[in-house]
Design brief:
443 residues; alpha+beta; Membrane-bound Lytic Murein Transglycosylase D, Chain A; 4 domains; 8-stranded antiparallel β-sheet; 3-stranded antiparallel β-sheet; 8 helices; 23 strands; 21% helix
Length: 443
């Protein structure tokens, strides 16, 4: 009797061990075909000697992408692994990247189909160094990116480096596609809509701009303000649904002329104002210019050029340099480093290492300290007499709203927050809200 029971136990044990061994083999087989370990890592500290080169090691400590139904570890999903079918399907989950540089570019092609490598130019980079690093020629990179001068590279610039000489044309095709899509986007605009905002206690034009995710230039250009630093509680200001400014059409102005003056496509102006023809423009009527900023124009030899208002008075007040560094972008019209096309740069970009101290250009009161849309972490100081200075893209802010600061006092640290292409401070000088050329004020 006992002998029979023992036999049954032995048979049951053999069957159990066989099933366990079969399950382990299936799991191992599926994991191997999945190209990675997708089951129980005690930790992610695994030496190369323990893992075959065909496996991809995934950080098991990073739990941000773990879900109960993922069936695996890391930023991958295993959908319905089949032990009878060795083709285990795996899908990489999409990740959101806060990349200010490629914000307007369409999604890149899948990694497996790329004939190029997307790189961001770093300080000190040259085409010769990039060519050597990627084992291609300087001419290959220039042709693929339609560059005309191999010595003109800027920090933060996006380049597409072909994998080899045979990939130059396909890389160029992709670059052309990006440019065409960016061009098409600049020709479009949403119909203008205006919200009336009632000023609350503690509001500043800077904080309101941040609330509505607008460039502060758009609020200056949508309201008639004598002093942008002083907003009366209960006052009503106009807030557009997109960046841009309102102008009053003057005699002789046309959509074509305005598009040239402000570097905006006629199609965008007409779309924003829901116009069907250029003849709809009326002298004395208000017109919205999408993407434009507050600037003044003067006539010179029959041509118009952009200048800061009251530039001749700029020597009346001197400001100290906010940081020691190299000027990477001047005040005035330039090629937009992010979106492409021409853009009016309302300040001075001064490049410096991340973390370097930024100081107040003059004594005054802090009227904004915090995030401000594309400016990133920003400090704004009012100096009286309708004069303000702005310090954008900071990594850290050292003073708060309401603080009284002295000239040369540390107020922030260099960074690259917001819409930025590298570590620098975007420094602005404004008079009654209008951007002035900082160079004319700095001593």
């Amino acid at each position: 009797m006992n002998k029979g029971k023992n036999s049954k136990r032995i048979i049951f044990l053999v069957m159990f061990l066989s099933a366990a061994l079969l399950s382990y083999s299936c799991i191992s087989y599926a994991a191997k075909n999945a190209g990675m370990y997708w089951y129980s890592f005690e930790n992610s500290e695994i030496s190369d000697s323990r893992i075959s080169s065909e496996y991809v090691v995934v950080d098991a400590i990073d739990t941000r992408s773990l879900n109960a139904d993922d069936g695996g570890i890391g930023p991958f999903k295993v959908l319905g692994p089949s032990f009878t079918n060795p083709e285990v399907e795996m899908y990489e989950e999409e990740e959101e990247y806060a990349d200010s540089v490629s914000g307007d570019l369409p999604p890149a092609a899948p990694e497996t189909s790329r004939d190029w490598t997307e790189i961001k130019v770093e300080a000190g980079s040259t085409l010769s160094k990039l060519a050597e690093t990627h084992s291609v020629t300087i001419n290959d990179i220039m042709q693929a990116n339609e560059l005309t001068d191999q010595h003109k590279l800027r920090e933060g610039q996006i380049l597409y480096v072909p994998k080899n000489s045979e990939s130059v044309q396909s890389t160029l095709d992709y670059v052309t596609q990006l440019k065409n899509e960016a061009l098409a986007k600049r020709k479009k605009a949403e119909p203008i809509k205006v919200t009336e905002y009632v000023v609350n206690n503690g509001d500043t034009l800077w904080s309101v701009a941040n609330t509505f995710d607008l460039d502060v230039n758009s609020l200056f250009g949508s309201n008639k303000l004598s002093d942008g630093d002083i907003l009366k509680v209960g006052a009503v200001i106009r807030v557009p649904n997109q960046d841009g400014i309102f102008i009053t059409v003057k005699k002789g102005q046309t959509i074509e002329k305005l598009s040239k003056e402000y570097s905006i496509f006629p199609e965008a102006i007409m779309a924003a104002n829901e116009m069907t023809s250029e003849s709809a423009i009326v002298n004395g009527k208000e017109l919205f210019l999408p993407g434009a900023k507050v600037v003044a124009f003067v006539e010179s030899n029959g041509n118009k050029r952009a200048v800061s208002k009251n530039a001749s008075d700029s020597g009346r007040r001197g400001f100290g340099w906010p940081v020691v560094g190299k000027i990477s972008s001047k005040f005035g019209w330039r090629k937009d480093p992010v979106r492409g096309g021409r853009d009016f740069h309302t300040g001075l970009d001064i490049r410096a290492p991340r973390g370097r101290t930024i100081t107040a250009a003059a004594a005054g009161k802090v009227v904004h300290s915090g995030w401000m849309g594309g400016y990133g972490r920003t400090i704004v100081i009012s100096h009286g007499g309708n004069m303000t200075t702005l310090y954008g893209h900071c990594s850290k802010l050292l003073v708060g709203v309401g603080a009284t600061v002295k000239r040369g006092q540390p107020i922030a640290q260099i960074g690259s927050t917001g819409r930025s292409t590298g570590n620098h401070v975007h420094f602005e000088v404004r008079s009654s809200g209008r951007p002035m050329n900082p160079i004319k004020y700095l001593k």
